[in-house]
Design a protein that fits this description.
Blueprint: H1 3-13, H2 15-21, H3 23-53, H4 56-72, H5 75-86, E1 98-101, H6 103-107, H7 110-115, H8 117-122, E2 127-130, E3 134-135, E4 149-153, H9 160-172, E5 176-181, E6 185-187, H10 191-209, E7 223-224, H11 228-236, E8 249-252, E9 257-260, E10 267-269, H12 275-289, E11 295-298, H13 316-332, E12 337-340, H14 346-349, E13 363-365, H15 367-379, H16 383-393, E14 400-403, H17 417-422, H18 427-438, E15 450-452, E16 462-464, H19 467-470, H20 473-479, H21 482-501, E17 505-509, H22 542-545, H23 554-571, E18 580-583, E19 591-598, E20 601-608, E21 614-626, E22 632-640, E23 645-650
Parallel strand pairs: 1-2, 1-17, 2-5, 5-11, 11-12, 12-13, 13-14, 14-17
Antiparallel strand pairs: 3-4, 6-10, 7-9, 8-9, 15-16, 18-19, 19-20, 20-23, 21-22, 21-23
Helix pairs in contact: 1-2, 3-4, 3-13, 4-12, 15-16, 20-21, 21-23
Bound molecules: alpha-D-glucopyranose.
């Protein structure tokens, strides 16, 4: 037997012994791999770092720490890195299907999620986004987005060990794991924040007792001892939560300072102008990646760089930082991809992909398309959606969008108002119409939900509700109206079918697969009552999921059809990532038609966004197969019921 054969035998049968016998060789090989990746990026990384921080010592520390995190990375993850370096498009395959869920709502804790993986597999999900689960103070957590410790899981959810075990189990089951990296701010309970406060208190005591205080931790945030600079900022920085958390600064009476808080007063903005903040946050990022993450969602990324006299959003330094993160990930943990949360107007979103030579995020949320989709439901008019889809479809194919109907946040009406104006719809009154429509106030609307941050000054408001409630299922069940119910289910499925037809990666919001309705119980919880986003963050109802196989139940009808569509999508080559995707005019403003073309294969999706029967005026050559019903048909002036849809492939 050859030496190689022996080695392979030992490697597979006795990995511990293999590691011991060949440790020096393994270390040397690891070092070479790291060195090669570092060499590839070193010059650019150094250049960007120096441009931002002019600090060689801190850069040297960063490189040293990158090596430490690389060394600490488990062998299975290092192997995953090597495989994915050979297949960098792994996350863009047509069978990718995401689902986002709250651990406690879904299964109590991390071990509970692990036990429920068979359900997620039944949902065809292979990318699981766990909503924030790191330690956060109760009642001051912003749904977990106020992190008190980046290295500790919220104790009631489990431990880092449970997380790594879940990641391993997901990987063995062909699933990827995604988590949030909340990098713009920390909780006021984070150690740095506490030290900043203590340091300042000490300093003030010193003023009395002549002792030196330590401002190092204060320099990790933005502190001001009077209103002068905060007032200057307020002139140019818009507000994120105008009613639930007005203003961008919070007064700390204990130390007589203002601190910058773009989001809630207990979320202190980090100062990325300080290289210590950047370095330490990168170490946190790598620590979390090393637990076995495949996707890291960088939360609120446009906000991370602040500069007086600007809106403090999307500044060029943000792109420098994201580009550096991308390189750092490619050096230490190249199997990890970055999902940017950029909830901005389209021209601000796309730059976060970077360029082909200098990429930034691997994936971005298709936020404008999402909002425009709901606009089309309320107006029964797909013209704006078609325009928006044409823009997205004309972008380079490697730009990967994450498509979704609903997520844990509100829907902000970030539409193309310039175009709407040309069609005689002006912004304030159109937003009012949308909010009236979706809260069910508008005559003929069956949608149910609540406003979010209804700003009395700007008259602006966003909207919260689940897909099923927005589609009228809640109203139909309440009114016991069977016709309405059928229509609501059709609307819900049509929207999911349309989402699955778009190019990019579909992301489901947990329990939309069984048509979850709004949950009003948050109003009884004083920690949640003021934040209407909790209307769509209710507990998962397993008794309803239990009906998923019954064709007569709402849950079963949604679950079964959705599941069938997901399977078709993962098998048919017309859903490949490199297909050409176009919209197609069928001469009715309520009907969206999407064409997917791969070589000679031709797929046509037809979606009726109106609550009445409509005809798609079209004359397609050849015979088609309806992929859902398996029937053969011709696509000539196709009639669709209210909210009907078709998925057809040319035979
Ligand atoms: C992101 C989250 C949102 C949170 C905010 C502040 O936008 O999606 O839920 O409130 O960041 O961290």
């Amino acid at each position: 037997m050859s030496d190689n054969h022996y080695r392979r035998e030992i490697f597979y049968r006795f990995p511990g012994i293999y590691k011991y016998l060949f440790r020096e060789e393994i270390m040397k090989k690891d070092q070479e791999i790291f060195q090669e990746r570092l060499n590839h990026h070193h010059d650019e990384l150094r250049w960007l770092y120096t441009e931002l921080y002019h600090n060689d010592d801190m850069f040297a520390e960063l490189c040293d720490q990158m090596y430490q995190y690389f060394t600490a990375r488990r062998r299975v993850l290092k192997n995953r890195d090597l495989e994915r370096e050979k297949n960098p498009d792994w996350f863009r395959q047509k069978d990718m299907l995401g689902m986002m869920l709250y651990i406690d709502n879904f299964a109590g804790n991390i071990k509970g999620v692990s036990a429920k993986l068979p359900y997620l597999k039944e949902c065809n999900v292979n990318c699981l986004h766990l909503m924030p689960f790191l330690d956060t103070p109760k009642g001051r957590s912003d749904g977990g987005y106020a992190v008190a410790d980046f290295r500790k899981v919220r104790p009631d959810l489990g431990s880092m060990k449970d997380l790594a075990a879940l990641a391993d189990k997901c990987h063995k089951n062909g699933m990827n794991l995604c988590m949030d990296f909340v990098m713009n701010h920390t909780s006021e309970d984070h150690e740095w924040a506490k030290r900043a406060l203590a340091g300042e208190k000490e300093y003030q005591d010193w003023a009395k007792k002549a002792r030196q205080g330590d401002g190092e931790y204060m320099s990790r945030y933005f502190f001001y001892n009077n209103r002068e600079i905060p007032d200057e900022y307020e002139k140019t920085v818009p507000q994120v939560f105008p009613t639930t958390a007005p203003g961008n600064f919070t007064w700390l009476p204990d130390i007589g300072h203002y601190v910058m808080t773009t989001f809630y007063p207990y979320q202190w903005d980090l100062n990325y102008g300080n290289p210590r903040v950047f370095n330490e946050m990168m170490y946190n990022f790598l620590f979390l990646a090393n637990q076995g993450m495949d996707v890291i969602r960088i939360d609120a990324v446009p906000y991370i760089w602040k500069e007086l006299g600007t809106p403090c959003r999307n500044l060029k330094q943000v792109h420098t930082i994201v580009r550096m993160m991308r390189m750092i990930a490619e050096i230490v943990c190249p199997s990890v991809v970055l999902l940017g949360e950029v909830v901005m107007e389209p021209e601000k979103v796309v730059p976060y992909f970077g360029t082909v030579e200098k990429p930034e995020c691997h994936m971005l949320y298709n936020v404008t398309t999402m909002a425009t989709t709901w606009n089309s439901i309320a107006t029964r008019d797909i013209r704006l959606l078609k325009k928006q889809m044409d823009i997205v479809n004309s972008l380079p194919k490697q730009y990967t969008f994450l498509n979704y109907l609903r997520c844990h946040d509100d829907i902000g009406w970030g539409l193309d108002f310039a175009t709407l104006k040309e069609w005689d719809m002006d912004e304030p009154s159109h937003k009012r119409y949308l909010n009236d429509f979706f809260t069910g106030k508008y005559p003929g609307s069956d949608s149910r939900g609540e406003l979010y941050n209804d700003d009395p000054v700007t008259q602006d408001a966003r909207f919260c509700g689940t897909t099923a409630s927005m589609c009228g299922i809640e109203a139909a069940l309440f009114e016991k109206d069977d016709e309405k119910l059928k229509r609501g289910i059709r609307e819900d499925l049509m929207l999911h079918a349309y989402m699955l037809t778009q190019s990019g990666i579909p992301m489901l919001y947990s329990s939309d697969e069984i048509g979850r309705l709004n949950d009003y119980s948050y109003k009884e919880d004083p920690d949640k009552a003021a934040d209407s986003r909790y209307i769509h963050r209710g507990a998962f109802q397993w008794e309803l999921a239990g009906k998923r196989n019954s064709k007569s139940s709402v849950e079963g009808q949604i679950f079964q059809t959705l599941s069938r569509m997901e399977q078709i999508r993962s098998q048919e080559s017309v859903f490949d990532k490199d297909c050409d995707v176009y919209t197609y005019d069928v001469h009715d403003n309520s009907i969206l038609c999407i064409l997917r073309q791969k070589g000679n294969e031709r797929f046509i999706g037809i979606f009726n966004f109106s609550d009445s029967e409509k005809t798609a005026w079209m004359q397609e050559e050849g015979t088609f197969r309806d992929l859902i019903t398996d029937q053969t048909l011709e696509l000539k002036d196709v009639e669709l019921p209210a909210y009907g849809f078709m998925w057809c492939k040319r035979m």
